[in-house]
Every structure is written in structure tokens, then in C-alpha cells.
Amino acid sequence: MQVSPVRPFHKYRGLGNLTLPSLLEAVRELLPRMVGRQVRYRVTDLPTERTLRYYISQGLVDRPSGQRGTAALYGYRHLLQILAVKYLQSQYLPLRKIKGLLRGRSNRELEQLLPESRAHRASLDTILKKVDGAAAEAVTPRGRGGRPAAAGAEQRWRRVVVTPGLELHLKEDLGPPRDRDELRRWEEELLRPLAALWPEMGKRRERE
After folding, report:
1. Rounded distance, CA 151 to CA 69, Å?
2. Neighbours of 170 (CB within 10 A)
3. Of 163, 183, 169, 168, nearest to 139 (Cα)?
4. Rounded CA gap, 182 and 185, in Å?
């Protein structure tokens, strides 16, 4: 059995009572060790309280998980989300594409996305393939925060080869689109992650 390497952020696993200053202190400790700077666009190297509130308002980071008096509380998932946003920004992705890539990711998938260190940063397409592969391997669905779903919720998946190098993973009980509008929505959702991986493809579609 292969044991996963200990990542710098693993020491925060299970924590759910971080105040905003404590959360940002953890981010500032970890971020320089994992993420390099990007110089093409104007983005903050280290997020501030204002930055985090903006991420929450845009759906990039979950809302606080609790409250202690007047202080909002955050946890391990919030830490992973912030690190993932900053890492993908370092790969020159805009926030609107990052939001699409992170939507619905479990804690395990967020961990897979992040590099062990700056020296171990892989190309974005390699990392996303690794993350999506880990998600497709799961037979038992995982709930919010990466926890196993309720008992009896086991699901099976079908693999459909679209073209060499491109596969779809479909739940066995998934039926076809009900009408033309739903078919169009499916087409848009299928192309969205590809456009995020290859921005030039998205620009070409916008010109057509």
C-alpha cells in the first residue's frame, strides 16, 4: 500500500475553529513554500482579509463554518481552497476559470491539486488529470468536505471514450438529456473545463 507523502498543510487537517487572522497566518506560512509568483497580471502575492471576503463573495471559497462570539470561524477546507486559488493564479488562470475548476472539489481533490513545494510544481494539465483521475476512481461518492456520503449511496460509473485521450465518466443511472435546452446546457458544461485547460480554445469559440 502506497502511503501519501506528508504535505506542509496536512498539519491543519481536522481544524475547524480558525479565526480569520489565524487562517491568513497559515496561508502566509504555506503559500511562499508552495506557489511561485506570477508577474503577468496584477494579483496579490499574499491574500488579505479583504481578498478573502472577495473570494467568498465570488464563490471561490466557502462561507465561514461557524462563529465564536462575533468572530467567524474557518477550517481546513477554507485553507485548501485559498491555497488552490493562489496556485491556479500562479498558473495565469483568471478567477472565473478558477471558479469553474474548483467547483464541487472534495478536500482530497484539492489536496491532489496542490504541489508539495515550489520545487515539485507540475504542469497544470498534469495536475488536473491526476485530480480528475482520483475522482473517477472513487466508487463511493464523497460528501461536502471530502467526507464519505451516507451509507447506501454507493454509485457506479461508466467510462465512455470520446476520442483518443479524452474520456467521460458517467453515473450508471444517468439518463439522456430531456430536451434540446438541457442538451445545450450539457454541451456548455462539457466544454467549460476544456476551455479552462486550453484558454486559446475558449477564445476561438468566442470568435466563432
Report:
1. 35
2. 12
3. 169
4. 5
Classify residue 12 by its DSSP letter: G
Q: pLDDT of 30-88, one tens digit each?
A: 888 777 665 555 667 788 899 999 999 999 999 998 888 889 999 999 999 999 999 88
Polymer length of the chain: 208
Which residues make beta-bridge pairs with 168?
160
Global pTM exceeds 0.90: no
**Which pairs from 145-154 meet CB under 8 Å and 24+ separation?**
145/77, 145/106, 145/107, 146/77, 146/106, 146/107, 146/108, 146/109
| Pair type for strands 71-74 and 157-163 | unpaired
List of residues 6+ apart from 131 with CB closer than 8 A: 105, 109, 112, 113
- Cα separations (Å) of 114 from 9, 21, 88, 189, 195? 10, 22, 9, 24, 21
**Fold of the 1-124 domain:** Multidrug-efflux Transporter Regulator; Chain: A; Domain 2 (1.10.1660)
- % pLDDT > 90, the chain: 19
**What cell does 59 get?**
464563490
